[in-house]
Design brief:
Blueprint lengths: L6 E4 L5 E7 L6 E5 L10 H7 L4 E5 L16 H14 L5 E6 L1 H12 L4 E7 L10 E3 L5 E6 L3 H4 L7 H8 L3 H9 L8 H11 L5 H10 L23 E6 L8 H10 L4 E6 L6 H4 L1 H13 L1
Parallel strand pairs: 3-4, 3-5, 5-6, 6-9, 9-10
Antiparallel strand pairs: 1-2, 2-4, 7-8
Helix pairs in contact: 1-11, 2-3, 6-7
């Protein structure tokens, strides 16, 4: 397994982001943006495969991994703004940007609000730009459509989608988190890599705020359960590659990728992988690497 040591970069808003770096700094920079209950080190396999082609920077976002969490977030846009400040601190004017899962929402906000800084966008098993709402549950633990939570703290009591992970993180429950992380894969990683991901997932400091933010993102022009929508998805003008695993029916079902693809159709490419779950860069390691490199180098 690739041995990566985290570095640390203070950014202009006072937060300090941990990050890993690989590849030739003279090559084009590819910024890798992780998802929820994860960190830069969930990208170990992707970094190994992509670093021969690009200068890789993979930060832990605010509140994740070894980064600070001085100020609580309310939106994914705030995390995207952090990454622009990170690029400023690293003297990177423009980059290719890849976002996985929740990170897909973050990088869409980046590309919409800072279009000159994002040259091409790769969305991997991404959340939808219309929001991934956490609804209240009925007595059978099923979502009650339209029944929204009133605050991150109330959302933290959700017995299905939030509380189990929150308690695993608070109690540093390695076995519980390992079961949750393992459910993301079809091709199980080696023990060392899997255990690294679990340790990183247990470091998260912002789970209820992140769930609140992903519920509330709405870049469309249509109202959602949590927000009326700001229409900013139309500001994304760069080429976009959408990657989706056809077995990813729980964490990022197909409609989320299609939401994004259809909103950005004029500049989009969509690739579906059979027998592939949420962690595409492991389940379809060779194919996804080739597709990403081909798209970015085109």
């Amino acid at each position: 397994m690739l041995n990566l040591t985290k570095k640390f970069q203070k950014i202009a808003n006072g937060e300090t982001l941990a990050y890993v770096e690989a590849g030739d700094a003279k090559k084009k920079t590819l910024l890798l943006v992780h998802g929820n209950f994860s960190s830069s080190l969930h990208f170990v396999r992707a970094i190994k495969n992509l670093s021969p082609h690009f200068h890789i920077l993979a930060p832990d976002m605010r509140g994740y991994g070894d980064s600070t969490y001085h100020k609580r977030i309310k939106t994914l846009k705030e995390l995207g703004d952090d990454l622009i400040l990170f690029m400023d601190a690293k003297n990177i004017e423009k980059a290719y940007v890849l976002g996985w899962s929740l990170g897909g929402g973050v990088v869409m906000e980046m590309a919409a609000h800072h279009p000159k800084r994002v040259e091409k966008l790769v969305l991997v098993a991404s959340t939808t730009h219309k929001g991934y709402p956490v609804f209240k549950k009925d007595s059978n633990m099923q979502p009650i459509p339209g029944a929204t939570y009133s605050s991150p703290e109330e959302m933290g009591t959700d017995p299905v989608q939030v509380l189990p992970l929150l308690m695993a993180q608070k109690n540093q429950d390695f076995a519980g988190m390992k079961a949750a992380v393992g459910a993301m894969f079809i091709v199980q990683p080696e023990e060392e890599e899997a255990n690294l991901m679990v340790r990183e997932s247990l470091k998260q400091k912002n789970l209820i705020d992140a769930d609140w933010a992903i519920s509330g993102i709405n870049m469309s022009s249509e109202p959602s359960a949590y927000n009326k929508g700001d229409g900013t998805i139309k500001n994304i003008k760069c080429p976009v590659l959408h990657l989706w695993g056809m077995s990813d029916i729980w964490l990022a079902p197909e409609y989320m990728t299609l939401d994004n693809y259809n909103a950005l159709k004029d500049q989009s490419t969509l690739i579906r992988y059979p027998n592939c779950g949420h962690v595409i860069f492991i389940d379809k390691e060779k194919e996804s690497t080739e597709d990403i490199v081909k798209f970015l180098n085109a």
